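ENTRY TYPE: protein
WANTED: fold as tokens:
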Amino acid sequence: MECNDCAVSERAWSIAIFVSALAFYLLTTSREPAWGDARSMWDVADHLVSRGEVITTVRWPDDAPTGRGGHYYGISPLGPSLVHVPGAALTRMVAAGSPAHARLARPLLVHLAPAALGALTCVLFFWLLVELGRSRRTASVATVILACATTTWVYARMPYSEILQATCFLGLFRQALRVCEQPTRRQALWLGLWAGSLLHSKYVFALAIVGCAGLLVLGLRRRRAELWRTLGVAALAGLPFAALALGYNWVRWGSVTQTGYEPYLGAYFGGDLFDGLWGMVASPNKSMFLYSPPLVLAALALPRAVRAAPRYGLGLLTMVLPVFLVYCSYRSWSGEYAWGPRFAVWMVPVLLVPLAWALDAARTRWQRALVLAVVASGVAVQLLGSALYWDHFIRVAIRAKNEWLGQPDRSGSYIAERSRGHCDSCFEDTYPVLWTPAFQPIAGNLWLLRSLARGDSAVEAQARAPWRTYTTLTVDLGDTYDRARIDWWGLLWIKDVAGTTGAGLGVLAAFLAALLWGLGRWRRLWRAAADERGNLGAEPQAERGP
């Protein structure tokens, strides 16, 4: 009976967190369609639904070669498209049943999968903290901070693959730590499933899967029979995913070993490791700490967390660090265009884990005030990142830089310009939003949001532009400023799509009802957990090492 009660309790916690986070992300989601990388991901999903094919009519990147049959294919793995299949199917159902509402439904359903993945990330994060010895109350607070004060919020409202990567990496990381403690066949099976899912989010994470195997060797080195059984079961569980990846390669390119990334590896990789590392950590414009401020508290509490949970520290070394260093060697290490360093989004939930120890250690009024201030800054940053699609200020900044500082010479760039007049990922074009304080994107989004709210023209807005502290020059922004608009899905039925106000209000009411229900359930569970040890100021028992 006790075990059944425990299972019900765990299920209740998971449902409350998932519904709360899902409703929150949908309530605050974007009105923008799929742009950039996400266009081909969504288009592949739409072709799967409508024609049962994995082709796309979107040529992305815009110099992508054709594949088998002379068709274009997405270069990303299948996972980022598969998660959009439910949204694509629902979009076609709405279009068939009520064409008048299709323009309202499509942008919303494009963001359905990211919102669900963001919610799942919150659930996984909560249980990882509990399994590492934190109380459910502490884990609850840390989960809310992950959901609202880190880049998880911004990427859970965008149809790019980064939120899928974050979910799958966190899932594999958590499962690897669980297997180190409980190397059962069931846990090994889940390990293989998470590894296969992570591989299909992006192939670079094969390195993390190898690191996961290394973690198991370290954690189970004195239990060799269990180690080999665990590795064998996990490999068998992951084998169908590997076969699917090879088959997808063959369907697209006629070779099981050709991934689609080959034409771009030489151009994009080969950057300076130190530059990428410094940029990810300490760039004045793109540091991960600027875009997810609670990571500062997590970094300060990291020694405490590693002492209490040594297997967590081993996981960072074997699974996180190798992939992170590979991304640091990428010439476009930030993953432009993006909000913050896009290639760091996948590791934010895992790096945030020590925050729970920081919360428990915050015992005085001043310590808690500091925590509150850092969290508030994180929420503010995400609000700015959600208020505008990130391309708007980036395009304004690049145009202003070209007008002010001159057109760069791109003839020596590793990434060919091809007479386009710009190069989205080249240093020559992106350096202002990476390194130059005059074009700091957080400050830029704040300026752009205020200007749009006041209804300023491009000339009027420049009087308060961030770069005006360095120059009095009035630059020609072309159409970059005029294209900017507030990015909230509610404006679809308020402004964009006539005749859908009733449907929009109905959807809004449903989201609000789900959010209130989920938060109400979560609050009751929070109160019931008040007698647990380690509640925000007490120190729970440390776990035993691997």
About this structure: Strands lie at 55-56, 72-73. The CA atoms of residues 5 and 423 lie 58 Å apart.
